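Field reference: sequence -> structure
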Amino acid sequence: MLGWLRTQTQSIFIYGILAIIILAFTFSLGGGGSLSSASNPNNVSSVYGQPIDRRVFSNALADREGQLEQMLGDSWTDEKSKELGIPQQVLNDLEDQMLLRHGARTLGLEITDTELRDEIVKLPAFHPNGQFDYHRYNRAMAHQRRNAKDCEAAI
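Structure field:
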C-alpha cells in the first residue's frame, strides 16, 4: 500500500484526499478557528450563547477548593482537586446556573433591584449590631476577591 502511495504522489487526486483528511481532523479536534466553540479565549463555555467568563470560573473554582481545604485541612492538594474532577464539577454548576437563568428569563421571572437589596440586607453575616453594616459587606466582598456587583449578580 505504501509503495502504491509513493508511486502515486504526483496525482492531484491523492493530494485532494489527503487535504480533506487533514481538514477533517483539524476541525474535529477543535482547531477550526472561529468555527470552534471556544473562539474567545476569555470564555470557558457558553450556554444559549451566553458566555461563562474565565474569571468567573476561576473565582468559583477557588471558592470551592477553599471550602474543601477548610474541611479537609492539610490532606487537601491541587492533585486531589483534579483527581476528584472539581474543575469539571464547578463548570457543570456554572452551566446549570446559566440554564436556570435562561429558563427564568424565558418564563418572565426576574428579580427587581428592591428584591435583591432586601435579600442582601437580610443576610445575618452583615448585622453585627442588629443593623446592616455596609462597610462590613464591602470588606467581605473584597476578602472574597469580588466586588459588590459580582456578589449581587450571584445572588
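Note: The longest helix spans residues 86-106.
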